[in-house]
Design brief:
By secondary structure, the protein is an alpha/beta fold. It has helices at about 10, 30-40, 45-50, 60-70, 90-95, 110-120, 145-150, 165-180, 210-220, and strands at about 80-85, 100-105, 130-135, 155-160, 185-190, 225-230, 230-235. α6 links the parallel β2 and β3 (about 130-135). The protein starts with 8 loop residues before the first helix and ends with a strand.
């Protein structure tokens, strides 16, 4: 059985958006919301408070979260590449911010769920900002779409993803970033305290050890903008 065959609809539906009201219409604070903040130049302490109640109610919790991002943004992504995007909540949120976003995910079941999650996260015309690519990280540079995609993005996300990706594929991505001819930001995030992450021994799910030694390696050739627990932000190619 291929490792990727384990990533079924049942796997991704273990925390179903449709059947779990607490997951509807907002992104998770510990990793997804923080990644939204980092992409927009908001630091860890600010990102941790992004979903604090606002003075004035807004149409929905997600809209409140996104409005705080809009107001606090000191950086505006020209294009976002999210690798291992899963069900697409975060990527739909970037699209809702009117930011061109490529979600790369090898599991067709996850891409289907992202379509189904659209009504909660990006019901309007901003959905046109989102492009889905079914691919592993290792396969991505060989696809015909990659040159145009890579030329368009200045923000790369690995959110709840890096431990699922073979180490050599992550290293190849980092090497691309080191050779970049323009400023690009790499954002890695899991639950803040979920660090280090050990391989789970199953051979298909958590397959790569994620620890400080790896984060030191990834940061080489770039400038760390933020590091806290599992959260790492590195700028390559000059100021973001």
């Amino acid at each position: 059985m291929n490792r990727l065959d384990h990533y079924t609809r049942d796997y991704f539906s273990a925390m179903s958006i449709e059947t779990s009201p607490n997951l509807q219409d907002h992104v998770l604070r510990a990793d997804q919301l923080s990644a939204l903040g980092y992409a927009h130049g908001i630091d860890f302490n600010e990102a941790g408070a992004l979903d604090a109640p606002g003075a004035a109610p807004l149409p929905s919790p997600l809209e409140r979260q996104l409005d705080i991002v809009r107001q606090g943004a000191r950086r505006h992504p020209a294009g976002v590449l999210s690798v291992g995007a899963g069900r697409g909540e975060l990527e739909l949120s970037f699209a809702r911010l009117d930011e061109p976003t490529w979600m790369v995910e090898p599991a067709g079941a996850a891409l289907q769920l992202a379509q189904e999650n659209r009504p909660w996260f990006c019901p309007g015309p901003e959905f046109a900002n989102l492009r889905a690519v079914q691919s592993t990280l290792g396969q991505l540079p060989g696809l015909a779409v990659f040159p145009a995609l890579w030329d368009a993005v200045d923000t790369v996300l690995l959110v709840e993803a890096i431990e699922h990706i073979p180490l050599e594929e992550t290293r190849a991505l980092v090497e691309l970033l080191r050779r970049t001819n323009r400023p690009r930001r790499l954002i890695i995030a899991n639950w803040t305290w979920f660090h280090p992450i050990e391989p789970d021994g199953g051979g298909w799910n958590h397959i790569t050890r994620i620890d400080d030694r790896l984060y030191d390696e990834i940061s080489g050739g770039g400038q760390q903008a933020m590091r806290h627990g599992s959260h790492l932000v590195v700028d390559f190619g000059g100021p973001p």
